[in-house]
Specification:
Blueprint (H helix, E strand, L loop, with lengths): L3 H29 L3 E5 L6 E6 L2 H5 L5 E4 L5 E3 L5 E4 L9 E2 L8 E7 L2 E5 L6 E3 L11 E10 L6 E6 L3 E5 L4 E6 L2 E7 L6 E7 L7 E3 L2 E2 L14 E3 L11 E11 L5 H15 L3
Antiparallel strand pairs: 1-2, 3-19, 4-5, 5-6, 7-8, 8-19, 9-18, 10-15, 10-19, 11-12, 11-18, 12-13, 13-14, 15-16, 16-17
């Protein structure tokens, strides 16, 4: 016969095991928050493998370009004025601004205790060594963590050569434009950080989304962009806004992002920036 004391001892051992599993899982969660994908032993909760999570590991290709303000890639030309933002992808597609008055300001602890860069309406950066593919040939997926500092009516977040862009319209919605208004997000609110996504693939399912929620205007724009890219302005350096940027990147490949890939990218941003 099992005594009451033996039952209590068994319960204590079970509690001790459950607590160890919980503690290991909690340590795993904290490690995941710094960009590690973890494998856990189901029986013990022990970490048995780790892998650094990057956009390349999520999508299976390197970003066409990738700007990460937290990665030590911002060049301070003095008093926080940013003259260059180095590409974190292997492609060396750096964004620059040679004119002092047009440089954005580096914010030392802009978001989640990490650096960001803030622009006014006359400030922007450009990159010359890239041409976005025609959507019907190769899709382009743009995603970013951004904040409209003020309401930005008919102003450009991302200029794509000449004739294409991601901009904020008169309804404060994020719009993907590629020869036609291809997609539109719900309205953005000034002072709020957002995870934004814009897909150009020349399909009716193209989208502009904030926090994973797309708007109602969707069609397939198929403009052939010219060379170059700009942030916080169009290709001519006009239509500037008051945006603050934490991280932004573009993926080019044949297939559009899957639901799983978009969810993994959302988890990456959430762990890093605290924005969903």
């Amino acid at each position: 016969m099992i005594t009451a004391e033996q039952i209590r001892a068994r319960h204590a051992r079970c509690y001790s095991f459950d607590r160890r599993v919980y503690d290991r899982a909690e340590r795993a969660r904290k490690r995941q928050a710094i960009g590690l994908e973890l494998s856990l032993d189901v029986a013990t909760g022990a970490v048995v493998g780790t892998k650094v999570v990057t956009p390349a590991s999520i999508f299976g290709v390197n970003p066409a370009w990738w700007l990460d303000a937290s990665a030590g890639t911002l060049t301070d030309a003095g008093a926080g004025a940013c003259s260059a933002w180095a590409d974190s992808s292997p492609n060396g597609r750096n964004f620059v601004q040679a004119t002092g008055a047009n440089r954005g300001t580096i914010i030392a602890t802009g978001l989640n205790s990490k650096k960001t860069i803030r622009f006014t309406t006359s400030q922007f950066m450009t990159m010359a060594g890239y041409t976005m593919p025609q959507p019907s040939v190769t899709m382009s997926y743009f995603t970013a963590i951004v904040k409209p500092v003020t309401n930005n009516i008919n102003t450009v977040l991302l200029g794509i050569g000449s004739g294409s862009s991601c901009f904020q319209d008169s309804g404060n919605r994020l719009v993907g434009y590629d020869g036609t208004i291809a997609n539109s997000s719900p309205a953005l609110t000034a002072g709020t950080w957002y995870r934004v996504e814009v897909l150009f693939s020349n399909q009716a399912t193209d989208y502009a989304a904030i926090g994973g929620t797309a708007g109602t205007l969707a069609s397939g724009g198929n403009n052939v962009p010219s060379a170059g890219m700009s942030i916080n302005a169009n290709s001519s350096g006009t239509q500037g806004a008051n945006f603050e940027f934490a991280e932004l990147l573009m993926i080019n490949r044949a297939s559009v992002p899957t639901t799983t890939e978009r969810s993994k990218m959302a988890a990456y941003f959430l762990a890093k920036w605290g924005v969903s």
